Amino acid sequence: MTWHPDMPEEYKNQIVTGDARELAKQIPDESIDLIFTDPVYDRIEDYEWLAETAVRVLKDDRACLVWQQVSLIPQTCNAMMALSYRWCLVHYKPGRVKEKFGAAGFSKWEPLLWFDKGRLPRRRWMDVFQSMPFQSKFSMMLSHRWGKDPDAILVAIEKFTKDDWVIYDPFTGGGTVPAVCKILGRNYIAFEIDPDTAELARERVRNTQPPLFVMEPEQLEMI
Question: Are strands 84-92 and 109-117 parallel, antiparallel or unpaired?
Answer without folding.
Answer: antiparallel
